[in-house]
Amino acid sequence: MLSSQKFIRSLTLLLLVIFGTAPSAKANNEVFKSTLKSTCWVIAKTDGGTFTGTGVVVDKEKKYVITNAHVVGNAKKVTIMFPEYKDGKLINAKKKYIDNIKKNGIKGRVYEANPTVDLALIVLKSLPENIPAIKMAANSVGSADEVHSVGNPGASGALWIYTLGTVRAVYQKQFRTEIGPHDFRAVETSSPINKGDSGGPVVNGKGELIAISQSLDPKARLISFCVDISEIKKFLAKKRRPISVDAEIILAKAGLKYKESEAGPLSVDIKTDKNTQQEVFIADETEYFEKAETRRLWALAKILSKTPTVELTLKLLDQNSKTKLGAWTVERNTNGQYLVIYVAKIDVAASPESLKDAMNYISRVVQHMQKELKPLN
Q1: Whose CA is closest to 100, among 53, 151, 43?
Q2: How many Cβ atoms sit within 10 Å of the Cβ of residue 10?
Q3: Given this model, what pLDDT does residue 376 score?
Q4: pTM (2 decimals)?
Q5: Domain 36-237 has what CATH class?
Q6: How far, in Å, CA of 356 to CA of 350, rounded?
Q7: Between 169 and 76, whose confidence is greater?
């Protein structure tokens, strides 16, 4: 027979299991599964190398993903990967995703990055039908509220890591990190945020987005900062230029077959006659000046081992005064060679037919110059 004191203790533990621990664990698991559906791994190549972080789908129709500005850095393009499953079970081994990045990676364009609030908007070229946009909370959270987050810490060999935390405070925070000064409404939590978790969703008990993971205070214990939902909504509501059509789409409409290089630009082999063709490049990224938006086209005419002569320079200047579209330029590469390039810029709103005509014109101009430059080293 159990003593009355032991009986009460055993009954208390049993009640905690039945009414406390078990339902809470089940609820947390459901929140994790729901949040994971909209969570992605972000891979960005910048001037400083390749960086990874986390993102979350916030608009399915527009194919919008939100992450931190410091995750994408100065990258214009990123690769996105979503969770994969085998026999109904989540695959979380990071190596599996790295090995399949060319097959399953989805390309995205960094549409805007704001370092002050540390948010970046990515527009995906495609989005699988089974990937939903996360539901946003109507209001922020408060102190002592329980929060859940999903991230992809770089130090871990796994992706899609779940973390449970508690809100410490919500307030306007001004501080500085390695990317510059920040000023945003912050949700301070007890959740440990590691490099790679940045940009990931932070949700309430209903699985609604209440913040984006941002940083961890290295001088304190379990003090993490997240960008509040109010900042996210303001960032998304901002008026922006219409998203320009991808170069691939325009080329396809123009009936032009293109090749894609790891460096970024696309190229098209334009036939000038039955026996010759000229490679013309087109940039996927666009350039802005106030309301004007253009796309760069170019072709290489000659690679010189020596500094261009005065005669050549004058010839190029003379041709610039005669061309109908674009101009000649000379650029030096990392090998010390001089590249004679013809560059043109066209409006992004130009029709596919206009693009095709421009590329045909560039190919003819370049091939004509190649004949004149043939004697040069």
Answers
A1: 43
A2: 11
A3: 64
A4: 0.74
A5: mainly beta
A6: 10
A7: 169
Domain ranges within the chain, ordered by starting residue: 36-237, 247-373
Which of these, 118, 59, 72, lies nearest to 237 by C-alpha position?
59
% of the chain residues with pLDDT over 70:
92
Q: Which residues pair with 67 in a beta bridge?
A: 120
Look-up: residue for tokens 């002050």? 116
Residue 313 corresponds to which tokens in the numbers above? Answer: 């320079």
Residue with tokens 């996105």: 80
Residue at token pair 């698991």: 29
CATH number of 247-373: 3.30.1460.10
303, 338 contact by CB (below 8 A): yes
Q: What is the mean pLDDT of the chain?
A: 89
Mean pLDDT of 250-258: 92
Return the pLDDT at 263.
65
57 three-class SS: strand
Cα–Cα distance, 89 to 318 (Å, whole number): 66
Instruction: Give residue 178's identity as a one-letter amino acid code.
Output: E
C-alpha 101/C-alpha 120 separation (Å) is 22
